[in-house]
Amino acid sequence: MGWTQYFIPDTLNLLWLALSLFIAGVIEAFLWKTSPFQALNIPIQIDWFGENKKWRGLISLPLAMVTSVYLLNFSEIIIPVLSRQAISFSNFNLIEFGLLVGFMFNLAELPNSFIKRRLNIPPGDENNKLFYLIDHMDSTYGVLILWYFYFHFPLHFIVTGLIVTPLLFMGATELRKKLGLK
To answer: What confidence tier does 136 reach under pLDDT thresholds 50, 70, 90?
Structure first.
């Protein structure tokens, strides 16, 4: 039996948690159009990470995640069946969870961007299939590391996440493109 007994429940929990990141990404797209975030639309360090890694992302996603987890926690309260997940937002300090997950999601992209700039791979280049896959693993794997070491999620959940989260992130990226949010 092994870890396969956990695969479907863990995948459902990952979908629930990933929904918070997707909603945060949508909120973030709107935040970027506001004056405070326009002022933060400056690269962190062009030589190291390129022009696309900006201060607004490091700040906006954690704030958007806090909003998102509060919305989903409220959903768990008004629709009780949602709180029957093994991992429920009501189990966390929502501010801590939202800020840390949002920050880690963006922070985990920086080493990949640094390597790509050293290899002269242009930002946003989706032609290289290996880097397209890595681009969808870096953030999600950073969050999985946070969930395991800081929030103490079970190892079987993290193992399932290693497989499922890049696929979810690729799907969410394509959906955000179709909606004109990326």
So the answer is: confident
Q: How far is CA 93 from CA 15, 62, 88, 99, 101, in A?
A: 20, 14, 11, 10, 12
Per the CB < 8 A criterion, the answer to whether 43 and 53 are in contact is: yes
In Å, the largest CA–CA distance within the chain is 54
Q: What is the distance between the alpha carbons of residues 168 and 52, in angstroms, rounded to a whole number?
A: 22
Residue 153 tokens, joined? 């999620």
Q: How far apart are CA 85 and CA 88, in angstroms?
A: 6
- Nearest 10 degrees: CA dihedral of 67, 59, 149, 8? 50
Domain boundaries, the chain: 4-178
Question: Whole-model pTM above 0.85?
Answer: yes
Assign 80 a pLDDT band (cuts: 50, 70, 90).
confident
DSSP state string for 87-117: S-GGGS-HHHHHHHHHHHHHHTTHHHHHHHH
pLDDT at 40 over 70: yes
64, with CB counted inside 10 A (0-12, 13-18, 19+), is buried
Distance (Å, whole) CA 86 – CA 48: 40
The 3-state DSSP class for residue 54 equals strand
Gyration radius of the chain over CA positions: 17
